[in-house]
Structures are given as structure tokens and as C-alpha cells.
């Protein structure tokens, strides 16, 4: 008795998509009166169980070994008599997953005339670069996500949009509102000291204060006996 009948697919193998970072497996099944051995052509990136027909991706997180690409796979089922059945499929290794924030960037309250240091962090298997839309008032470290002020931020409200991209063009962004307040009082250039004066003579006494946002007015408590140039 001679066996010249090849195996048959239980279900014809179809093209597959492999999302980068996820484990990849694909089951093929064939039938024959005799034992079937499965094999495939691309053993650098995939393996197949010779008795089970389970195809597995070897390097789900390593684009240096399995680059993002479309792989042409030829699957063969061979029976004990050497009769072959083949199917050609493609496996597309792709990255469509967007970065995610480790923590959603919160809004900021910032004190006038102090440096702004604000860090954003995102996660992605192929994280590439951070950027910001307002490069007049702010700058961002493209590699670390550290945001600093480029100029003296005025008292009031501003906002910026921070972006993060991965190497395949998937993006993530967040809008951050920043409120700059001036809650710091002026400081004396020299602390005012008590003094005496001779009765009947005019007295003058100079005080000086400084404030980053500028001084508005000088005043004193005893306006019955003294005046001050505001």
C-alpha cells in the first residue's frame, strides 16, 4: 500500500498580526491518517511545535532581533510518508500601542520669581522623545521629561501641552495649567532701627525695601506725627 495523499488543513492558516511587546502564538492544525510533523521556514524569529503545530514568536520585546516588519512564513505539514501540505501566511509585527503616563501630569501652582522644575514621566516599550508646545516660556528635556521655565513667568495663568512620542509615531499628550502667584512679601534692604532726634528740629529717615515684582507703596502707622513718601 502506498500513501500519496497529503495532509489537509483543518482550518486554512491565515495572516496574523503581532503587537510588539505581546507574546505571539498561533495554532495550525492538519489531519492525516498518519503522524504529522509541522515545520516552518523562518526559525530565526519563530518556532513551531513539530507535533502540535503551535507557532510562537521568539523575541516579543526585542526589535534588534525581531524588527517591526512583515514576515513571510511558509508552514509545512508532512506526514510519515513524506507527503507535504504547505500554506504561506504573513505575520505583521507592529507597534500601535500609545505611551501611557506613569502619573497624569497635574496642574501647577508656582511662586513668582522662583525656578520652575516640573517632571513628567511616561512609559512605552519604544519611548522616544518628550516635547512641549510653548517653547517661549518653557523648555523640556527631550530624554527625561524635565520641564523648566525659559523666562520669568508673570503673575497670572498660563498653560502648556506636553507631548511624548515613541519611535513608531504613537503619541500621548496632556494639557497643564500653571498659576503663578506672588505671596512673598518685600524685604528690607537694611532693617529699620529706632532713633532719637532733637526737639524742634525736622527729622528725616530713609528706609528701603526690595521686591522682585516691584514695590507698590510705603506707609506708616503714625500719620499724625510723621509722613512718608509713598
Key features of this structure:
Cadherin-like_sf; Cadherin domain-containing protein; 20 strands; 4-stranded mixed sheet; calcium ion binding; 230 residues; rod-shaped; 0% helix; Immunoglobulin-like; single chain
Provide structural commentary:
With 230 residues, this protein is an all-beta fold. It has 2 domains: 8-94, Immunoglobulin-like (Sandwich); 100-181, Immunoglobulin-like, CATH 2.60.40. It is 0% helix and 41% strand. The chain has no helices and 20 strands. It has strands spanning 8-9, 16-19, 25-27, 30-31, 36-40, 46-48, 54-57, 70-79, 84-94, 100-101, 108-111, 117-119, 122-123, 127-132, 138-140, 146-149, 156-166, 171-181, 187-188, 209-210. A 4-stranded mixed sheet has the order 2-9-8-5, with no helix packed on it. A hairpin with a 4-residue loop joins strand 17 (156-166) and strand 18. The radius of gyration is 36 Å and the shape is rod-shaped. The termini are far apart. This is Cadherin domain-containing protein. Pfam families: He_PIG. It comes from marine sediment metagenome.
Topology:
Layout: E1 8-9, E2 16-19, E3 25-27, E4 30-31, E5 36-40, E6 46-48, E7 54-57, E8 70-79, E9 84-94, E10 100-101, E11 108-111, E12 117-119, E13 122-123, E14 127-132, E15 138-140, E16 146-149, E17 156-166, E18 171-181, E19 187-188, E20 209-210
Parallel strand pairs: 2-9, 11-18
Antiparallel strand pairs: 1-4, 3-7, 5-8, 6-7, 8-9, 10-13, 12-16, 14-17, 15-16, 17-18, 19-20
